[in-house]
């Protein structure tokens, strides 16, 4: 009975399970593929392990690019959102050679659309090669919600594992770069706060004693052997302004100041950027000092990068000793305040060029100044409506220190004509231009008209 039951499965057609039979060549191919997959996986794990180790070792972007270039035998680089190469490496190349090669790779491609897609997907993407150019893999380097840069891999040598591994390696490398840049950003922010605190102390004279002030100045790189000027840069804002715009503006000025004046001391104080710049002749013009061209360059830079943004820039007087910096800064601030009261935004003005305006505009009520100008020149302004020329003749005569000959040359008239017009000025205004006090009153009134507009 037992024998019959044991044989029953065969009677009902049941067969024992056996491994499927493959041709020998297919079996060998499967074994080879499995071996390659295992090798690629081990290589991928090794790269991940090394990259993670770099993050723990406080490595920089150049080290990450170098490791990736060595492991995948391709051009690798980190570029800014404006495609400036921040770090680059390539097989058998120096960093400068690799940066130049990477720049050549990306200069002939239209990467704007790819980077725009990356900003939305925030995942690594591949840009197929055109003509003979190799494919390019790009991954965003994220710090929080911000894309600080992009990691690019030029696939000059295709990885045996295919496209997925290339994307994974680039994406993980971008993650490590994000860790590094995040750490650098925090360190830079902390250093920036310390730096700005020292700059503020120097500008406001907050040191406990002279020795402490000198230590601050030395730490910031201030050299009392050279003359300096303080530049105050203020962004004019309205109620609708983006709160972060001031920081973006001041951040964009940093590289410009570094290029134009590498020894300058710059800091940001409550929405105002302040530059303590060494005073030197401007290039090609030994009579023009460098602070004005530097400030003018800042003005043009912001107008180009941030259309609609308006800067007002004041420049303080010359200072050498660190204790004089606070006075120069106060003068720069007064220059800015004077321009604002005059409604002359978007200008650069050194303190000394304000002349008497810096005193006149200390008067709290500007209408008092206008009233004084009307009392002195009001009748002459009305006379100008019928017979113009007297007011300009008076201004030129006073500016030429009472010289009839020089005034006549400036006005392109005969000296007798100047005399006649000045007599008419005295008749209309009641001024006696032979008296010092009357000439002074006329000069002050003219300065008020020049600063505040029509005296009527």
What is the topological layout?
Blueprint: H1 2-11, H2 24-56, H3 61-72, E1 75-79, E2 85-89, H4 95-107, H5 112-121, E3 125-127, E4 136-143, E5 146-154, H6 163-204, H7 210-220, E6 228-236, H8 245-260, E7 265-269, E8 272-278, E9 281-282, E10 285-289, H9 291-305, E11 310-315, H10 325-342, E12 348-350, H11 357-360, H12 366-386, H13 390-399, H14 404-411, H15 415-429, H16 436-452
Helix pairs in contact: 2-3, 2-6, 3-6, 6-7, 8-9, 12-16, 13-14, 13-15, 14-15
Labels describing this entry:
alpha+beta, 16 helices, disordered N terminus
Task: Describe this structure in a few short sentences.
The chain has 456 residues and is α+β, with helices and mostly antiparallel strands.
Task: Give the helix tally.
Answer: 16
> How much of the sequence is in beta strands?
5-15%
Which class do the helix and strand fractions yield?
alpha+beta
| Helix-strand topology string | HHHEEHHEEEHHEHEEEEHEHEHHHHHH
Query: Helical percent range?
Result: 55-70%
Largest sheet, order of strands side by side?
A: 2-1-5-4-3
- Largest pleated sheet: 5 strands, antiparallel
Q: Which regions are unreliable across 5 or more consecutive residues at pLDDT < 50? A: 1-17
Q: How far apart, in Å, are the first and last alpha carbons?
A: 133 Å
Q: How many beta strands in the DSSP annotation?
A: 12
Q: Please tell me how large the radius of gyration is.
A: 37 Å
- Average pLDDT for all residues: 80
Overall geometry comes to: elongated
